[in-house]
């Protein structure tokens, strides 16, 4: 694997110059001819052998044709060509950079990257849309996904756990649109999130108590707000004696737990056959003797099965949902159930929601890119046909005299009413008293 290379401003100018593209295209054609001469032998070469071959050929062609570039620029050229033949071209360094969270490509000339929650345009670009398509197909090849005019959209999980979404013509106008979501190889723990300032100590203690006492929790937030990372972290509090089943459209969760069954939905073929939806997986998971069910994202008809599971003995289940506030989260649950053909009355649906969900944790991405828990709310029951909630913690940044904002969470002074947490507190107090008596 190549190491990430930090380029100077001068090198960036060279890599994005017309001269670089001209020389690269010329030597690329020469290398294609040489590879054709080598035949099948080239396909058996290691990455280091390809690198050595490209280095020698680049130096030879630069000298032979008296190309006016220095030794460092020749090496940059050789590195770029090695990535073309043995890697993922211009994307390789971004894919290997642990700080990169998202790679967004809008045609061959626009590449944006998200680092630490902030989106910035990158210097790199592709020669043309054909070049971009070659790299896309190389990324998709190992996972066997087809991308052509009859199947112009692909959403898939990469071998390293990341996710790629591609849309090509005729559905997109300005060249292929590619979205790559990367995931950490070592998921963030609750301690990591605390150090990063996602929540404070009191909130962390409440969340731990809620998970250990088998409360049902929904993590609500917008796109790229950190919902999956928080869900991964909360799963650290699940006892190892319990069996956890995760259900996702594209497997993103990587729970630090000893007994996990990971289920992933399957899209249908070009004729629609073979489709297995999250709703189907959730129904089947109830026959797999789960102690807890974790739904990666609730966004369809599976909401009905999830609420029923939470209401019929699968306490401690969790999931994420796209919503801008805890109240909006409840409205979205109602809306999704309605779309899924829920047959009961509005009152009975709200009663199911109130009985099923214990806590809603709202997380958001702030303008500076940091992810913070914005509120923790407890669902307390039904009041005048409306699902009642009480907010336990709220994020209210403190503005310092110099204008700088400092994170601050306000405890609303209300203790959670959940009998599950009350039972856990009693057990812990009894255990502590037993130790003292001994």
From TrEMBL:
Q: Which domain of life is it from?
A: Bacteria
Q: Which CDD domains match?
A: VirB11-like_ATPase
- Residue ranges constituting the Bacterial type II secretion system protein E domain according to the UniProt record: 86-362
Q: Which Pfam families does the record associate with it?
A: T2SSE (PF00437)
Check the record and name the InterPro entries matching this protein.
P-loop_NTPase, T2SS/T4SS_dom, T4SS_GSP_E_ATPase
Report the family membership.
Belongs to the GSP E family.
The entry's protein name is Pilus assembly protein CpaF
The uppermost taxa in this organism's lineage are: Bacteria, Pseudomonadati, Pseudomonadota, Betaproteobacteria, Burkholderiales
């Amino acid at each position: 694997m190549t190491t990430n290379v930090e380029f100077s401003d001068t090198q960036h100018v060279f890599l994005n110059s017309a001269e670089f593209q001209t020389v690269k295209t010329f030597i690329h054609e020469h290398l294609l001819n040489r590879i054709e001469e080598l035949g099948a032998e080239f396909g058996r070469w290691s990455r280091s052998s390809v690198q050595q071959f490209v280095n020698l050929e680049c130096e030879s062609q630069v000298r032979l044709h008296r190309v006016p570039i220095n030794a460092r620029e020749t090496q940059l050229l050789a590195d770029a060509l090695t990535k073309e033949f043995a890697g993922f071209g211009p994307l390789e360094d971004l894919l290997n950079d642990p700080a990169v969270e998202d790679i967004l490509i809008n045609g061959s000339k626009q590449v944006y990257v998200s680092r630490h929650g902030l989106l910035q345009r990158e210097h790199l670009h592709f020669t043309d849309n054909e070049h971009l398509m070659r790299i896309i197909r190389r990324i998709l090849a190992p996972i066997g996904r087809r991308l052509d005019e009859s199947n112009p959209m692909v959403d898939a999980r990469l071998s390293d756990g990341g996710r790629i979404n591609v849309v090509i013509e005729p559905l997109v106008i300005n060249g292929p649109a590619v979205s790559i979501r990367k995931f950490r190889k070592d998921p963030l723990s609750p301690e990591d999130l605390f150090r990063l300032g996602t929540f404070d100590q009191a909130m962390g203690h409440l969340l731990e108590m809620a998970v250990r006492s088998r409360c049902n929790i929904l993590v609500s937030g917008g796109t790229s707000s950190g919902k999956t990372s928080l869900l991964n972290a909360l799963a650290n509090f699940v006892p190892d004696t319990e069996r956890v089943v995760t259900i996702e459209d594209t497997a993103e969760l990587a729970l630090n737990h000893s007994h996990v069954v990971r289920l992933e939905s399957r899209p249908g073929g070009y004729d629609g056959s073979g489709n297995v939806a999250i709703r189907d997986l959730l129904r089947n998971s109830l026959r797999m003797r789960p102690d807890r069910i974790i739904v990666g994202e609730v966004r369809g008809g599976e909401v009905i099965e999830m609420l029923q599971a939470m209401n019929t003995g699968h306490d401690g289940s969790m999931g994420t949902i796209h919503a801008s506030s805890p109240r909006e989260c409840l409205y979205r649950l109602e809306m999704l159930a309605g779309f899924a053909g829920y047959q009961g009355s509005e009152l009975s649906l709200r009663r199911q929601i109130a009985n099923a969900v214990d806590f809603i944790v709202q997380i958001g991405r702030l303008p500076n890119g940091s992810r913070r828990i914005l509120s923790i709310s407890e669902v307390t029951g039904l009041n005048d046909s409306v699902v009642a909630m009480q907010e336990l913690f709220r994020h209210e940044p403190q503005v310092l005299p110099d204008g700088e904002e400092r994170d601050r969470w306000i405890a609303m002074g209300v203790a959670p009413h959940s009998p599950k947490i009350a039972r856990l507190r009693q057990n812990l107090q009894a255990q502590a008293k037993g130790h003292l008596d001994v």
